[in-house]
Amino acid sequence: MAMKYVQTTCPYCGTGCSMNLVVNDGKVVGVAPYQRSPVNEGKLCPKGVYAHEFINSEDRLTTPLIKKDGKFVEASWDEAYDLIAQKLKSYKPSELAVLASARVSNEENYAIMKFARGVLKTTHIDHCARLCHSSSVAGLATTFGSGAMTNSIADIAESKCIFIIGSNTFEQHPLIGRSVARARKNGAKLIYADPRLTATGKQADLYMQFRSGTDVAIFNAMMQEIIKNGWEDKEFIEKRCVEYDALKGEVMKPEYSLENVEKISGIPAAQLKQAAEWYATSGASSLLFSMGITQHTTGVDNVKSTANLAMLTGNIGRPGTGVNPLRGQNNVQGACDMGCLPVVFTGYQKVIDEAAHKKFSDAWGFPDGICAPQNGYEVTIMLKTLNEKPGELKGMYIMGENPMLSDANLSHVKEAMEKLEFLVVQDIFMTETAEMADVVLPATCYAEKDGCQTSTERRVQRFRKAQDPPGQAKVDWQIIAEVAAKMGYAEQFAWQSAEDIFNEITSLTPSYGGMSYERINKPEALQWPCPAADHPGTPILHTAAFAPAMPDSKGLMTAIPFKYPAEVPDAEYPFILTTGRSLFHWHTGGMTRRSESLDSEVPTGWIEINVDDAKELGIADNEMIVAKTRRGQVNVPARVTKDIMKGVMFMPFHFVECAANILTNDALDPVSKIPEFKACAVTVEKIQEA
Ligand code: SF4
Fold this sequence. Notes:
Layout: E1 4-9, E2 18-24, E3 27-33, H1 46-49, E4 65-68, E5 71-74, H2 77-89, E6 96-99, H3 106-120, E7 125-126, H4 129-132, H5 134-143, H6 153-156, E8 161-165, H7 169-172, H8 174-185, E9 189-193, E10 206-208, H9 215-228, H10 234-240, E11 241-242, H11 244-251, H12 258-265, H13 269-281, E12 285-289, H14 291-294, H15 299-312, E13 323-325, H16 332-337, H17 354-364, H18 379-388, E14 395-399, H19 403-406, H20 410-418, E15 422-427, E16 439-442, E17 451-454, E18 459-463, H21 476-486, H22 498-508, H23 517-520, E19 526-527, E20 555-556, E21 575-580, H24 596-601, E22 607-610, H25 611-617, E23 624-629, E24 632-641, E25 648-652, E26 665-668, E27 675-676, E28 680-686
Parallel strand pairs: 6-7, 6-14, 8-9, 8-12, 9-10, 11-20, 12-13, 14-15, 15-16, 21-25, 22-24
Antiparallel strand pairs: 1-2, 2-3, 4-5, 4-16, 17-18, 18-19, 21-28, 22-25, 23-24, 23-28, 26-27
Helix pairs in contact: 2-21, 3-21, 3-22, 5-15, 9-12, 9-13, 9-15, 12-13, 18-20
């Protein structure tokens, strides 16, 4: 068989880089550049370069498995489907919950959303966006009317000033970092705020090191300085925003003076003043953030603060400006767009809205109706319900997620999952979560199917099948359709291809309404909103007005008082622990730890400790120590560095052998229900010899 190239989209981060998979003898053997994508122009970061290595891992699941007497035994698809159908039919809709996936295609997420709401008739559907950018969706939908990145990746290069807070862009979204570097080359200033002097911080013109969890105070101080100096954009505020007086009333309070916020955050007053001036007066400032902003009990407040700052200075709706949440996973934007959230159908059409509910109910044609027009549980609330209200939730269907490593306070997660009466996991590897399942179904990875995904800049791009799946593994949407058919709903899932599903999505989703496979097959694909077949897509949102969802299409400014994190250091746990990722790994490591080249770069986890703290504690670089919080403890090697703030420690969360999420706090933001991964109180000790 001849060697061929198959153009597809990277399966790792939300940047959405295109690449070619090199296929020889029917197997993917490598990655080659695809030059025509406007996103990455042939360039890839290390994860993209080695995105082929896990595909044919010998650990791939190849046959359905059913747990009998505590052990998995191989089963036929029919046996597995019969058991799943019989068990799922035995529960009431409210006793069932579904987790969709930011890893799989839009078509597959749509299929499981329709399955949850139409077949199971449950309102409890969510996915891991809850853990990364649920605060962005909630915060920006409330202020701008749309919970997504306002500008495009290429547009960042047009900025005159880029303010990055809570995002290690150069390592976690390297090809977005390229746009930042281009802007700097053209003379833009880069302001970087983070507790760690990361690779991104090292490129900054102004680096502000701060205590994790003090973001709102920082934004309020910058806004006070801007108003005091008359740098606010009065015309923009007057014409495009509401509630300015309320915002002003809050930020002008003495507690947000530069000197006071220096005490709260640790950022010198002069740096805050400089940041405020550069951001407000550049003419085109772009604000980039990621999970350093969102993963807090004040995550929604933090996001609204980014929106406040941008509106106050008129940095919205023009090239080089915007509020840009950098989404984590390859298709986390798409999974949200596809309605895999407990409150919306596709395109953020509310489940509680009578007209939207009727629209989906009529279009799907389930003879016995669909879920009630009610909001369901978020994944974090599903877990709390399992632990705190025994018997309320009984069955769960998980597609391509691993809460047993990704969620906060893992002992609590394990306790919750053990309370399930019936668990189905559909995945490509035997994950920590799959180990707990009653039935495991072998699914396909990105290289084995057709479909599309939506990147952080709302660009809807194609996956293309490059090889057959291993063993009996099947495409996720096909598995869902076959389970639905077993449960009596073959007609509603009678798709013949991913394209059939995409056509159903576009017919029900106004923001995708003008898209088709023919249109998104082009190298530049399309960015939503794209409401009509002749619409070119939308690289910049809110150019003339905010979204129609906002009253009078105006942006909502919000007064936001500063609150400390749920857990702050004390005598027993005197340090702040924050978590994040490594350049070479991806989330729970399922794919990257099975990629030899990536795993050999960073084979295990670590805890970063400031040099002065390490000296006081008598801890040496590379020494194995024990890290403890109120929720558990892990043994982990110390990485002693000057690059982290004194009093703050950092762990990546990819590594099961030193799982950071045993330590993290599952206290939730009251609106988005995101856990506070980015700040809890920790102590570290030397390991005592036995
Ligand atoms: Fe893949 Fe993201 Fe790297 Fe691009 S920047 S190659 S999308 S991991």
